[in-house]
Each structure stands twice: as structure tokens, then as C-alpha cells.
Design goal:
The chain is an alpha/beta fold. The protein has four domains: 334 residues, Up-down Bundle (Na+/H+ antiporter like fold), CATH 1.20.1530.20; 102 residues, NAD(P)-binding Rossmann-like Domain (Rossmann fold, 3-Layer(aba) Sandwich); 49 residues, no CATH class; 87 residues, 2-Layer Sandwich (Alpha-Beta Plaits), CATH 3.30.70.1450. It has 31 helices and ten strands. The strands form two sheets. A six-stranded parallel sheet has the order 3-2-1-4-5-6, sandwiched between helices. Strands 7-10-8-9 form a four-stranded antiparallel sheet. It is elongated. The termini are far apart. About 4% of the residues have low confidence.
């Protein structure tokens, strides 16, 4: 039995690797590759894997680890800010979907109970697929990403009452008191888990880390993940929701990043198993025999879910484009619907034929999802440009904060008021440079307007909104949002509307740079690369590489849009050891270039100490070091000066040496 299970795993991973590799070459998302691999090797394909139950158990581990890592990336404070998306947005989406799906189903079934149950099944979306796609595109923290996550969290919570209400739809009746008790227990366990985030877990992890045992740390993290997931499942909640709560607890500690890096390899392996196990459920023979029926079901599912997934965010004040994106992202059937349909089958609500239609159409929606999500920016952009959608957006905006920047000129437009946007606004305000901020979070707009910020509500991907921000008279546009698709669209529109505007874009990933430059951005600052630039700058500085050489090195990288690391000759400087008597002083080095005005002048000519307060302690020329050099030593190209003085004086000296001020001082 053990060997058969191991054989199944080898076949699954082998087939998955080949299919995903092939699909990757064809630019097809890996999620589709895993699903197709499951279809091929499953019982309804070539049938080389028959023990699907064991695979499903491992697949559930993948979902648990996925939700756990998503929870780590968030925090309780961030989740609290999303309460409108979770409670109101999620509640509206589930209620509207159940209502519309039940109404459409009743036309076919003529059975109100069965129709409502079909609404239950369609209301849930795939947490695993949606979050994986968002993570791969770096859009988890984008407006539509936060909205999707909020609705998905509510859907996972809804699994409990939907499961409890299923027996009532079969005619068995239901004990209202029992339902209320179970829901109360679920709420209690969530509260207990979240409270432990600030009490028990941080202290436990601190003690574990003090042992300096990496194995113990990983074991403890896995124990917390699966232990809390199991605990919540005992109270009727889903394992995935418990894992998400466990991740939230870890996110409140300083060890969150280490936990994330340790668990990523496990998560990626097991989540692949989840998609393979879903693919194994597909009966290809049934699909070929009932193709028109299944295609009709898929179209209805997509139509209903895109409509309700778009309307719900709109009703709580989300931007039109982000709302459409959310509806497209949540348009598939969820993995927890499979759990619910089994309960319905056991209760006699679901017949064998309906079960197959549901499975086939659900898996097809999952396979299609990566493709429509990839096209979501284009689809949402096209829909926003339609007159009907614009009218809807204008009607909805009646309730939004009003106002416009007025007739500003030569100002800076900041799109996005997160940490980067706020810091920039603060600096511009102190420098008395005119600016205006565009933000899509209406709560942030209301709050910051009260503080006197020139901030306005709107979507930067709208040409009309950019014109209201006076894009044609603006001098600079700074895009500081966590939405790559929107950033590209904003750059394209802004460059078309104002060919002379200077555009700076902040992005999370280096891969975005080339596209943004091609669309018209003047500068693109990728966060991941700027971090590495800061690191190597500090390393080179510690090893006394001349500051102006380091500056040239980083500048050459940025000028070439981070595409290549040019080879810059860094002089070998055996001055890394700092003398004990200099421990209270700052030291730095300066390289004399061939074009430098210093070249050919003596140390005495520079008059450096009198002008800047900095002393030249040594001069390196080739392999020779002149310690305490003579004032009459003539400096040459390639010499490296060791400068000693206070930090601010050294900065002054570097500027002095790079100019011709010393010549004026000489003949003064």
C-alpha cells in the first residue's frame, strides 16, 4: 500500500513537471498545467493514478499552506482596515450570487430548495487559484487584490452556515438553536485565536528562537499552522480559514519573514498537488457527451459571478475599474464548493447527473480563470470606456468626496497615497512645491482632506480623471501604487495627453521596468532592485571604495533603467583597516579621475583643511601608499585620497574636490 502511494506521488510530480514545463514554453499559466496533468493521469484520463483519496489529503495540505502564507503577508491591522471589503463587500457578493443563481436555476429545476442550493455552490470562489494568480502578478496589495481577498475571506467564513443550512433544503428540517450555537462557537474560536496573537504566540516564538535551532523553529511554525487549522475545523470552520488566522498571528511577530521563507518550498509543492487532484475529478467522457449543456452552465456561472463580483465592490465605493477586475477574478467555482456538493449529495439534494454537470463546469471555470484574469486589465479598461459604464460610475460618484485641484500649473501629480506617496507629499510641502494627490480609497481621501491635503478621489486609469488633475499643465507625474496593470495604463495615457511631462513610476519588480519605459516613463524605480543598490553601496562604502566611484556605479545602473550592470573599474584599496586613533572620526576615500581639475595640483594648492575641515591622511598611487603625504605632493589621475574628518565636512570636501572652487581659493 505504501509503495502504491509513493508510486502515485512519483507519477503525479513527473507528469506535472512535464506538462507545466511544456505549458510554460507556450506562456500558459502553471495552474492550467497542473489541472491538465490531473485530467490526463486521473481515473477519467489514462487512469495511471487511481488512489485519488490520498492525493486529495495532500492537496488539502497545499491549500492550508497557501492560506497560511497569505495570512503572514497580512496583519491584523491591515485586516481591520479591510473590514468593509470583508463584511459588506463579501456579504453583498454572496447574497447577490445566491439570489441570482437560484432564480436562474429555478427556471430549469422548478424546485426552490435545489435552486437555492445551486446558489450556495456558485457563490463560492477559488481561494487557492485567485490568491496564487495575484501573488504571481504582484497584485495582492492592489485595490482589486485587497477587495478579492476580503470577499474570499467572507466566503470561507460562509462555508459554516451554508453547510448547516444544507439539511434544511433537503426537507429534513433544521434546529435553529443548534445553528446559532455553532455560529457562536465559530465566532468565539476566531476571537480566541486573534487574541492569542498579542499574548501567547510572540512569547513562544521568542523562546524558540533563543535556542538557535532552525529545525525547532520550522517545526513550531508548522505546528502552529496545522494545529490552529485543526482547532478551527473542530468548531465547524474550514481548515483554510484556520490556516489564514494562524498566518495572521505569525504576522504580528518579528519572525514572520523567516517563517515565510522556510515554508515557501512546502507550499509550492503541495499547492500543485491540489490543482492536480481537482483535475482528476474531471470526467472527459461525460463532457464530450454533454458538451452544449456544460458550456451553457459555464457561461451562466461566469456571467452571474462577474456581475455580482463587480456590483458588490461598486456598492461599497470601490473604483469602477477595480470592481470589474474583482468580478472577473472571482468568476470561477471554489474548492469549498466541492465539499458543499458532497454534503448536498449525501442529503439527497444533488442527483448523479447534476453532480457530473457541476464537477465538469466547475473545473472548466478553474481552467479558464488564469486566461481571463490575464486579460482582465484589457477587459476592465474597455468596459470602463463604454458610455453606459461611465454613466453608472458618475451616478455612484455622487456619494464620493467631491472637489478638483483647480487650475494648477507646473505641479506634481501623485497617484497613490500609501507610504511612498505620503513621504513624497511631505517633502514637497516642505519645499513649497505645488502638488495634488489622486487616491482610490475614499476613507483615506476623507481623512486626509480634513488634514488639509490636496487629495482627490479617482482612478488614474481614467483620462477624464487625469484631465481633472490638470495633467496637461503638470510638470511631473509620480505613480506610487501596487498595481502593475494600472501603472502601465496610467503611463500610456499620461504620455499621450502630455508629451512633456516627467513620469516617475514606483514598481515592486524589476521585470516591470522595460514595459514602463517603453510606454513612456522617464524613470522607473523597482523596489527589489533599489534594496540591492542600497546594500551594495553600503558594502562598498565599508570597504573604502571611493564615494564618487560608488555614486557613478549606481548612477550608471539607474540611467540604463537597471537593464545591465555596467562594469566599473573599482580600484583595489588596501585601506579597509581603520586605525584605532580614528575610531571617533569618519573616514572616506576619493578617486582622482583624468578629467578632474585636481589633477596636477599639490595638496597645498587644495587648501582642503582650511576650506572644509578635512585632512588628507594618505594617498595611494598604484601599489604605493604615501602616509602623511607632503603638502608639495602633486596629485595625479588614479590617486586615491584617504579623507578624515566629520561626516558633514567630508560631504563638503567631496563636493569641493569635484568643483573648481579650490583654484579660486588658491588665488584668493
Amino acid at each position: 500500500m505504501e509503495s502504491e502511494f509513493l508510486k502515485s506521488l512519483v507519477i503525479i510530480f513527473g507528469a506535472s513537471a512535464m506538462v507545466v514545463f511544456l505549458f510554460n514554453r507556450m506562456k500558459i499559466p502553471s495552474v492550467v498545467g497542473f489541472l491538465v496533468a490531473g485530467v490526463i493521469i486521473g481515473p477519467y484520463g489514462i487512469g495511471i493514478v487511481k488512489d485519488t483519496h490520498s492525493v486529495e489529503m495532500l492537496a488539502e495540505v497545499g491549500v492550508i499552506l497557501l492560506l497560511f502564507t497569505i495570512g503572514i503577508e497580512f496583519s491584523i491591522a491591515k485586516l481591520t482596515k479591510m473590514r468593509k471589503a470583508v463584511l459588506v463587500g463579501g456579504g453583498l457578493q454572496v447574497l447577490l450570487t445566491i439570489t441570482l443563481a437560484a432564480a436562474a436555476s429555478f427556471y430549469v429545476t422548478r424546485d426552490i430548495n435545489k435552486s437555492v442550493f445551486i446558489g450556495f455552490l456558485i457563490a463560492l470562489s477559488s481561494t487557492a487559484i485567485v490568491l496564487k494568480l495575484l501573488a504571481e502578478k504582484g497584485e495582492t496589495d492592489s485595490p482589486h487584490g485587497r477587495m478579492m481577498l476580503g470577499i474570499l475571506i467572507f466566503q470561507d467564513i460562509c462555508v459554516v452556515p451554508l453547510m448547516l443550512l444544507t439539511p434544511a433544503l433537503s426537507g429534513e428540517g433544521i434546529n435553529i438553536m443548534s445553528v446559532l450555537v455553532k455560529i457562536g462557537n465559530a465566532a468565539l474560536i476566531i476571537a480566541v485565536v486573534l487574541v492569542s496573537a498579542s499574548w501567547f504566540v510572540p512569547g513562544l516564538l521568542h523562546q524558540i528562537v533563543r535556542t538557535r535551532s532552525r529545525e525547532l523553529f520550522i517545526t513550531t511554525i508548522i505546528l502552529l499552522c496545522f494545529g490552529i487549522a485543526l482547532l478551527t475545523s473542530k468548531f465547524g470552520l474550514s481548515l483554510a480559514l484556520g490556516a489564514f488566522l494562524a498566518g495572521l498571528i505569525i504576522s504580528e511577530s518579528e519572525y514572520a519573514h523567516q517563517a515565510m521563507s522556510d515554508l515557501l518550498p512546502f507550499k509550492d509543492s503541495f499547492i500543485g498537488l491540489f490543482f492536480v487532484s481537482v483535475g482528476m475529478l474531471m470526467d472527459t467522457g461525460y463532457i464530450s457527451g454533454n458538451f452544449p449543456l456544460i458550456v451553457t452552465a459555464v457561461i451562466l456561472i461566469f456571467g452571474i459571478k462577474i456581475f455580482t463580483g463587480t456590483l458588490s465592490p461598486l456598492l461599497i465605493g470601490a473604483p469602477l475599474r477595480a470592481s470589474i477586475y474583482t468580478g472577473i477574478g472571482l468568476s470561477q467555482i471554489g474548492e469549498f464548493s466541492f465539499v458543499l456538493v458532497i454534503a448536498g449529495k449525501a442529503a439527497g439534494i444533488v442527483t448523479g447527473d447534476f453532480y457530473q454537470v457541476f464537477l465538469s463546469s466547475s473545473i472548466l471555470t478553474m481552467i479558464v480563470t488564469p486566461f481571463i484574469v490575464k486579460a482582465a486589465p484589457l477587459i476592465s479598461g474597455w468596459m470602463v470606456s463604454r458610455q453606459v459604464m461611465q454613466r453608472i460610475d458618475r451616478i455612484r460618484k455622487v456619494t464620493e468626496p467631491e472637489g478638483r485641484p483647480g487650475k494648477r500649473q507646473k505641479h506634481v501629480i501623485i497617484i497613490g497615497f500609501g507610504l511612498n506617496g505620503r513621504n513624497l507629499a511631505k517633502v514637497l510641502k516642505e519645499a513649497r512645491i505645488s502638488y495634488a494627490v489622486l487616491e482610490m480609497n475614499s476613507d483615506t481621501v476623507r481623512k486626509m482632506k480634513k488634514k488639509g491635503e490636496p487629495i482627490y478621489y479617482g482612478d488614474g486609469t481614467s483620462k477624464e480623471i487625469l484631465h481633472k488633475m490638470n495633467i496637461r499643465t503638470a510638470r511631473m507625474l509620480v505613480i506610487a501604487i501596487s498595481d502593475p496593470a494600472s501603472a502601465r495604463m496610467i503611463v500610456s495615457i499620461a504620455r499621450h495627453e502630455n508629451p512633456d511631462i516627467y513620469i516617475i513610476v514606483r514598481t515592486r519588480y524589476l521585470a516591470e521596468v522595460e514595459d514602463l519605459i517603453a510606454l513612456g516613463a522617464n524613470e522607473v524605480i523597482p523596489e527589489e532592485f533599489e534594496t540591492s543598490v542600497e546594500i551594495f553601496s553600503r558594502v562598498l562604502h565599508y570597504y573604502n571604495v571611493p564615494r564618487n566611484v560608488v555614486a557613478d556605479y549606481t548612477q550608471s545602473i539607474r540611467k540604463n533603467s537597471y537593464n545591465v550592470l555596467r562594469t566599473v573599474g573599482l580600484p583595489r584599496i588596501p585601506l579597509a583597516e581603520r586605525y584605532e586613533f580614528l575610531k571617533d572620526m569618519d573616514t572616506d576615500t576619493y578617486l582622482i579621475k583624468g578629467s578632474s581639475g585636481v589633477n596636477g595640483h599639490t595638496i597645498k594648492d587644495l587648501n582642503l583643511r582650511a576650506e572644509t575641515g578635512v585632512t588628507i591622511m594618505a594617498v595611494q598611487r598604484g601599489d604605493r601608499i604615501h602616509q602623511n603625504p607632503s603638502p608639495d605632493l602633486a596629485l595625479q589621475s588614479g590617486d586615491v585620497l584617504l579623507l578624515v574628518g566629520r561626516g558633514k565636512d567630508i560631504n563638503k570636501a567631496v563636493e569641493y574636490l569635484g568643483s573648481d572652487k579650490f583654484i579660486a581659493a588658491k588665488y584668493h
